[in-house]
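dumping this here so i dont lose it
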């Protein structure tokens, strides 16, 4: 069937919950960090650049891009918070700006040395940041613009950036691979371009040099020391030499503004974007629900659940979505939607409890990979790859299911199939880490080791094998009893072990911070919730900008999947509602409140918080009387009837199995 049945999803946001204000505060902190990175070494450094007759790097970028278009930085926080030997100052953004931009109506990737930070030197991880941007351009086949103003390696830390498989020399290999694959490269040389800085622009298709620029293997000071020759760097490698003698550059221009204008002209000569063709007559449209509202959808307590479809409703055009295989593996959401009028596939964790496929009436915790969900997203990922659809992965995952049932179901084998699929996909993939990105689940859902063209984190992202306290228990397991309590009876030893466990947990929590991950290049960019849509718009358009193998929607293999997995007369939502509405006939006027899955029952959000409800409280059908915890994921246990809470049947923190009565409500 050629028709793609897009259906409305999402509901209007009611009064923002309390965590929305906390999330907004996190976004404010992130905005301040972005401003700090963009400021480089500050206004005095920018003034010194202008005194030389040059423009600071961000001024160049603003003149380069189309007016009114977004500049979307990637890698902003590389080296964030890191000190270096030989420098009293840090290196914001590793001394280089890499960004997704629009120039003459085409999406491009800009790589620009920040000339306000140590004259554009390459610091540790600067080469890796440049190479990451080059790889994005190679994967997406979009032009690269280099704004070169680089005084070479930051020499006191050369051992961290010169050698190695991804050291500075690998930049030039990426230059070569881009050229070999027909990806346009245009360079502007604006100032000091020494050693590697001189090599970087040479392989570009077009090289512009300003009168204040030079490219040299070694600068004047080094030549004077080595050969006792008194020369200036402009004498050695200025535009007079490299435009008119060596032909290492193509065009000599008077100043930065002229170079930028001519670079824009070169981009205008390239073929126009194919995105309009691949829209198949559709028009781009904003979601019906504001992406700004995502901050009010994601609880800042990562154990609390939410409706992922509400997030999707704030990312896709018109909040319209075609869900595929909704009746199978309900713990995962798969489907297609448009972003900027262009088709892409979505694979997302469903955090809500879902029906257990083998035990009618029971439900399972969301945010976990079970056999059915793994098989579902493997098949969907392969279909998107066959159809040529870029894939957006929305992660909020606690990991794979564990235990006897999981091993008997062969989750290792199903997981291997998924990993193989994502390792061999050719279509661009974008991975968004909304909150939890835990354990092998992070890998299986196209985490950074599986080469997404872009991986984004939010201010709530927690990227790690396991949580801090859980890891501390694992690390000190030999000193704990079967209940994970310290086994020693010696007070001094107990105190020492407790302090070590606390220190380990705190360190892991610090490592899990999204800014720390970005500083290590474990994620490409930390973005505000509101910015997610803008980054997806850019990524999806870049995926469709250059013509590539892609089926038209009439012959998608996704249609076959949807038909073959369709269950007549059944819907996942109806099954879930039936499983969740477990209410028995009243006994002596009391209605039992039961849990629908195995786990641990909690009567309060956290140990320091008050109870959700006290006995005697009025309840509605949807009132949460407590939480059920499964693998560090929490779902509400609802009253199910209108009445008054008579009493709880269990203490806080009690392990329960599906069907256990946790409270009693007097109906009416």
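and the seq i came up w/
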């Amino acid at each position: 069937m050629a028709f793609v049945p897009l259906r409305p999803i999402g509901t209007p946001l009611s009064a923002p919950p309390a965590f929305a204000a906390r999330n907004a505060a996190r976004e404010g902190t992130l905005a301040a960090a972005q401003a700090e990175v963009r400021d480089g070494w500050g206004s005095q450094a920018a003034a010194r650049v202008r005194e030389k007759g040059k423009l600071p790097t961000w001024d160049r970028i603003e003149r380069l891009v189309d007016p009114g278009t977004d500049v979307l930085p990637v890698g902003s926080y590389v080296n964030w918070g890191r000190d270096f030997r030989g420098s009293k100052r840090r290196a914001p953004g590793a001394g280089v700006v890499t960004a997704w931009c629009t120039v003459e109506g085409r999406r491009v990737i800009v790589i620009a040395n920040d000339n306000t930070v140590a004259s554009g030197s390459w610091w540790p991880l600067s080469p890796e940041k440049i190479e990451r941007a080059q790889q994005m351009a190679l994967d997406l086949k979009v032009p690269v613009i280099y704004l070169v103003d680089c005084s070479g390696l930051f020499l006191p830390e050369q051992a961290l950036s010169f050698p190695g498989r991804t050291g500075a020399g690998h930049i030039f290999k990426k230059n070569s691979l881009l050229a070999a694959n027909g990806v346009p490269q245009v360079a502007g040389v604006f100032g000091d371009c020494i050693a590697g800085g001189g090599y970087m622009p040479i392989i570009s298709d077009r090289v512009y040099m300003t009168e204040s620029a030079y490219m040299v293997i070694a600068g004047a000071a080094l030549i004077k020391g080595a050969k006792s020759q008194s020369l200036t760097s402009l004498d050695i490698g200025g535009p007079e030499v490299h435009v008119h003698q060596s032909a290492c550059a193509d065009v000599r221009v008077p100043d930065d503004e002229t170079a930028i204008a001519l670079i824009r002209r070169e981009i205008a000569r390239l073929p126009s974007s194919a995105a309009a063709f691949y829209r198949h007559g559709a028009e781009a449209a904003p979601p019906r629900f504001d992406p700004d509202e995502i901050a009010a959808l994601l609880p800042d307590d990562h154990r609390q659940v939410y409706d992922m479809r509400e997030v999707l409703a704030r990312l896709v055009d018109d909040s319209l979505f075609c869900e595929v295989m909704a009746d199978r593996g309900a713990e995962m959401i798969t489907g297609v939607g448009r972003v900027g009028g262009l088709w892409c596939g979505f694979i997302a964790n469903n955090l809500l409890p879902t029906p257990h496929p083998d035990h009618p009436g029971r439900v399972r915790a969301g945010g976990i990979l079970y056999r059915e969900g793994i098989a579902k997203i493997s098949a969907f990922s392969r279909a998107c790859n066959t159809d040529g659809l870029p894939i957006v992965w929305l992660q909020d995952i606690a990991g794979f299911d564990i235990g006897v049932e999981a091993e008997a179901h062969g989750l290792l084998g199903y997981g291997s199939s998924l990993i193989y699929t994502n390792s061999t996909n050719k279509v661009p993939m974008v991975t968004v880490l909304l909150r939890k990105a835990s354990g092998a689940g992070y890998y299986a859902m196209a985490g950074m080791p599986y080469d997404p063209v872009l991986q984004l984190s939010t201010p709530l992202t927690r990227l790690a094998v396991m949580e801090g306290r859980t890891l501390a228990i694992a690390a000190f397991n030999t000193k704990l009893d079967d209940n994970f309590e310290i086994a020693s009876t010696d007070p001094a030893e107990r105190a020492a072990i407790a302090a070590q466990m606390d220190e380990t947990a705190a360190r892991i929590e610090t490592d899990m911070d999204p800014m720390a991950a970005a500083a290590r290049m474990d994620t490409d960019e930390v973005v505000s919730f509101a910015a997610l849509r803008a980054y997806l718009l850019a990524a999806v358009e870049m995926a469709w900008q250059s013509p590539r193998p892609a089926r038209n929607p009439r012959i998608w293999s996704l249609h076959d999947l949807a038909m073959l997995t369709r269950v007549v007369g059944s819907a996942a939502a109806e099954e879930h509602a039936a499983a969740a509405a477990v209410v028995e006939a009243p006994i002596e006027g009391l209605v039992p409140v039961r849990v629908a899955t195995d786990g641990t029952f909690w009567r309060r959000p956290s140990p320091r918080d008050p109870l959700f409800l006290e006995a005697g409280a009025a309840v509605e059908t949807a009132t949460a009387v407590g939480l059920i915890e499964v693998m560090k994921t929490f779902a509400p246990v609802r009253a199910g009837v209108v009445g008054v809470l008579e009493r709880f049947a269990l203490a806080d923190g009690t392990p329960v199995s599906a069907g256990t009565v946790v409270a009693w409500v007097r109906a009416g």
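Residues 18-38 form the longest helix (21 residues).
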